[in-house]
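Reading a protein record of the kind used here takes only a little practice. The record below shows the convention in full.

——
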Amino acid sequence: METPPTGLLRTVAHLLEFRVVPGHEAEVTGYLRQSILKARAPAGMRMRCFGRRLLHNQPEHIVGTCWQDEAAFAAGTDRRGVPKYLAPEAGVVEVLHSSAFEISTAIGDGLDGAEIVRVLRSVVAADLTEAWKRDTAGSADWIRAHDGLVLFQAGVSLAAPTDGQVSVATLSAWRDWDAVLVATGGRLGNLIRNTRFDEVERLDRLAHYELLGAETQ
């Protein structure tokens, strides 16, 4: 999936980071794996994946979904942003972060061959949003050249700016952990973008996940 031309319906990526009530981890993991393998994806869903957080002292998980437009996203999730196909397990899921982004730059068309998912959130001044989109799109060739990169998506939050700041995010999927270390030079907080915005983006949240299941429509 390459960067969509301007003027089309906004493609939406949604990231749901959550904990599972102790004692139910295997139940939820099994359910998610089976839902991806057997259950039909909701209408308008282009991709979904789930993973388990790495390098963290408490067990956390993520469900990532990509939707063809905002209407499909709204129809396929509840008011918390939890995908409706996860509803049978919602009672044992504690939502930590739920966020939706308009995808402005995309590299790759699926998650085949990926083992690691990296989610990085930053904030930029609201008046730099369009410049951030252009700058990220302009870095696509440099990003694509990283060995082991399977998928890259970048976008701006659908939420209204807060105190003149807007949330931006990148989701990247990698062949293995070694590819992540090489791309970041061993410094995991690096943005993996060689641009001037590395100086004006304020890192908000960074997490790495072991990919446990994925599906692309």
Notes: Confidence is low (pLDDT under 50) at residues 1-8. The helical segments are 25-38, 70-76, 129-138, 140-144, 177-184. The chain is about 20% helix and 40% strand.
